[in-house]
Write a structure and sequence with these properties.
The complex is a heterodimer of chains A (about 120) and B (about 150). Chain A contains five helices and five strands; from the N terminus they run βαβαβαβαβα. Chain A has about 120 residues and is an alpha/beta fold. Helix content of chain B is about 35%, strand content about 30%. Chain B is of the alpha+beta class. The chains are: A alpha/beta (about 120), B alpha+beta (about 150).
Chain lengths: ~120, ~150
């Protein structure tokens, strides 16, 4: 995996952003940016080049699914890998995310190995 | 209240704590709770809608949640603060998500709201659903916590 890429972590809970940052740092990723909802994430995406988005689903203002749809509708961002990390894992959620173009999906609670496996699949 | 709605929350609680905080958790005997006083110092509360309306809460004793979050972060947490409150919210969220997946398997689909967190000794938890409050105590090596599940009759 190319660990020099810039990753945007989007979650309304600082706890989850911190856990994900710890895991990503352990995997060698150092270029990490955070946002606490989809709207803030979009502001980040408009201002700098992001190579991978890791996003929660259920957030205020703009959900992860709405962020994903907005990213996929953008000419400049539509190919950006998008990993959904969420507690929302009912069948309909997964179907909606796949239809919207999610690159992969991790269900909370998760292990560090689960994040690593999904990143390897996305970034290979 | 359909008792099949309760077990998924017990299973989810054990799984979330074991996966995210690497802690061994033992469930005690469920009981009917008759008052609103929380059995602990910080609670996450979350509303559910779907085949029935309800609320769940997760209440930790201070010692227990400090140990849980210390383990989740890999660093020692020493006091109840905003970081702890945020973690309780996310734990409540994950327990809800995991339980709803199990409930979906028996044909009961629920949607969840974003959790709220209440702190303070002897705080109250008001479940906005008319129905029995089932409390399930849990033990860890670092203290206790309790979940409450309340669905309309």
């Amino acid at each position: 995996m190319d660990t020099s890429i810039k990753i945007l972590i989007v979650d309304d809970f600082a706890t989850m952003r911190r856990i994900l940052k710890n895991i990503l740092k352990q995997l060698g990723f150092k270029n990490l940016v955070e946002a606490d909802d989809g709207t803030s994430a979009w502001d980040v995406l408009e201002g700098q080049k992001i190579d991978l988005i890791i996003s929660d689903w259920n957030m205020p203002k703009m959900t992860g699914l709405d962020l994903l749809k907005k990213v996929r509708a953008s000419d400049s961002l539509k190919k950006t890998p998008f990993l959904m990390v969420t507690a929302e894992a009912q069948k309909q959620n997964v179907i909606e995310a796949v239809q919207a173009g999610v690159s992969n999906y991790v269900v909370k609670p998760f292990t560090a190995e689960a994040i690593s496996d999904k990143l390897e699949k996305i970034l290979k | 209240m359909d008792v099949r709605l309760v077990n998924p929350f017990i299973n989810a609680t054990i799984n979330v704590l074991e996966t995210m905080a690497f802690m061994t958790v033992t469930a005690g005997k469920p009981y009917l709770k008759t008052d609103n006083t929380a059995v602990g110092d910080v609670s996450g509360v979350l509303g559910l809608t779907g085949v029935a309306n309800g609320t769940i809460s997760v209440t930790f004793e201070e010692k227990c949640i400090l140990a849980v979050v210390s383990s989740m972060f890999g660093e020692t947490m020493e006091e109840l603060n905003n970081e702890i409150a945020d973690a309780v919210g996310e734990l409540t969220n994950m327990i809800s998500g995991q339980a709803r997946r199990e409930l979906e398997e028996i044909g009961k689909v629920f949607r969840a709201a974003i959790p709220s967190v209440i702190t303070g000794r002897n705080h109250s938890i008001i479940h906005y659903t008319e129905g029995p409050k089932i409390a399930i105590p849990f033990n860890t090596a670092d203290g206790n916590f309790t979940i409450e599940v309340c669905f309309e009759r």
